[in-house]
Design a protein that fits this description.
Layout lengths: L1 H7 L9 H11 L2 E6 L2 E6 L10 E5 L17 E10 L8 E12 L11 E12 L2 E5 L1 H6 L9 H11 L1 H7 L5 H4 L4 E8 L2 E7 L4 E7 L10 H13 L12
Parallel strand pairs: 3-6
Antiparallel strand pairs: 1-2, 1-4, 4-5, 5-6, 6-7, 8-9, 9-10
Length: about 250
């Protein structure tokens, strides 16, 4: 009932907050770029936990620069960690978001952190999605929940596309007709606890259509149930012939 009331009164669709998006991107990341005064270094995971498990964030001293412009003390290395969130499916414009963490890298021996980890005095985080930049504080990051689908999203989307293409066609019945007009193809581009997003590609551009779940996913095992709920809704919609050939 809550889902249909939301659709009836055109309430905003539930989506992850900027802090939640950053947490999820960091959790799923297997590489990053470390930028210091000495240059840029690409860091990739060589096995074991993801990159985020090797970075521990700590509050910066009072009075330190907001975005890492002034080192708080002698010794720490001013740095920016750059993460790129790339869609796992072959959609047009695969970069979904970028995350920048600014601060100072410290010697892990100064803190109780596992061997191979690095500490970072946190100055600020920025989420860039489609050119829209949002600044997030350390408190917001610490309070945000990581999406339960963050680490398995890529596998879920590629499985959906490779083995269940008919499901995508069925889900298109839930997309507003004006968005499907002239579309050449549609692919799943993202899935999170709140819903699934389809990317509709046209001759020269694209548009994203978000399909919210009736209720948020709390555990990974619930994702299949939520998708089946959307499919049941779609089966009650009249099919539309919309997809153009690529020729």
């Amino acid at each position: 009932m809550e889902f249909w009331m939301r659709r009836l009164f055109n309430a905003p669709l539930a989506q992850p907050t900027s802090a939640e998006r950053i947490r999820s991107i960091l959790t799923a990341a297997d590489s990053m770029t470390v930028v210091t005064d000495e240059g840029r270094t690409e860091v990739s995971r060589l096995g074991g936990p993801g990159i985020s498990e090797h970075i521990h964030l700590h509050p910066a001293p009072a009075g330190a620069g907001r975005h890492g412009t002034d080192a708080p003390v002698d010794g720490p290395v001013r740095a920016t960690l750059e993460f790129t969130d790339i869609a796992p499916t072959p959609v047009r414009d695969r970069v979904r978001a970028r995350v920048l963490l600014a601060g100072w890298l410290l010697d892990s021996t100064e803190h109780s952190t596992p061997q191979g980890s690095r500490c970072m005095q946190f100055a600020g985080a920025v989420l860039d999605r489609g050119g829209e930049r949002v600044t997030v504080s350390l408190d917001e990051l610490m309070e945000a929940d990581t999406d339960p689908l963050a680490t398995c999203e890529a596998g879920m989307l590629t499985h959906l596309l490779d083995d269940h293409g008919d499901i995508v066609d069925l889900l298109l019945r839930l997309v507003k007709p004006r968005l499907t007009l002239g579309a050449r193809r549609a692919l799943p581009v993202a899935i999170d606890r709140y819903g699934i997003t389809l990317r509709l590609e046209y001759a020269d551009t694209y548009a994203d259509a978000r399909l919210p779940f009736p209720a948020p996913v709390k555990e990974v095992d619930q994702a299949g149930v939520r998708i089946h709920s959307l499919l049941n809704m779609a089966r009650h919609r009249t099919p539309r012939s919309w997809l153009l050939s690529d020729s």
